[in-house]
Design brief:
Elements lengths: L25 E5 L2 H7 L8 H5 L2 H7 L4 E5 L7 E3 L4 E10 L8 H4 L5 H4 L2 E8 L3 E8 L7 E3 L6 E2 L4 E5 L5
Antiparallel strand pairs: 1-2, 3-9, 4-5, 4-8, 5-6, 7-9
């Protein structure tokens, strides 16, 4: 179910450079993709190209920062926009499975971030130009469902979608 409007106030909603958490989650942030793959994401096949299944988009974000917002089965299962912006035209669903995304799995040989079902969108604005948002389905969390449409304007903290939270 949805949160009450005042349940999660957005800090500095008018600050265009402020980024907010997209979910009630476990969060890890890296300054760049290389650092994330060296320290934390150990899948043999992990790359932005495999994550996005888009060569052009992966080149555009090569060397960029990465934040991983991991939901657990007990969490509120809706996710929100980290910035104010416009949903891009890209809304790409990628078929995959539902492996667990707990930290032990992410540090193993199986590349769960690029093997699981996921949907890739972009959010564009004047301050960050463009960010990529990848919602990944997982064991005990289920598939992801976006409630926004391409070209829709969103405020920081607006709902982008939810998971069906089924045991698979």
């Amino acid at each position: 179910r949805k949160l009450k409007p005042d349940a999660r106030p957005i800090d500095k909603p008018d600050d265009p450079y402020g980024i907010v958490s997209v979910a009630d989650c476990r969060l890890i942030v890296f300054d760049n993709i290389s650092e994330a793959t060296r320290i934390w994401i150990k899948g043999q096949q992990f790359s932005l190209r495999y994550l996005f299944e888009d060569e052009k988009l992966s080149k555009e974000f090569d060397g960029g920062s990465i934040a991983v917002f991991r939901l657990a089965p007990v969490d509120y299962h809706r996710f929100h926009s980290p910035i104010k912006g416009t949903i891009g035209k890209l809304m790409k669903q990628i078929t995959g499975t539902y492996y667990t995304v707990n930290p032990i799995a992410i540090q193993g040989n199986l590349d769960v971030l690029t093997s699981n079902q996921r949907t890739v969108i972009t959010i564009e604005n004047d301050y960050f130009e463009k960010i990529v948002f990848v919602a990944i389905g997982a064991l005990l969390v289920g598939s992801v469902n976006f409630t926004v449409k391409p070209c829709q304007t969103v405020e920081k903290g607006d709902e982008l979608g939810n998971t069906n939270n089924e045991v698979l």
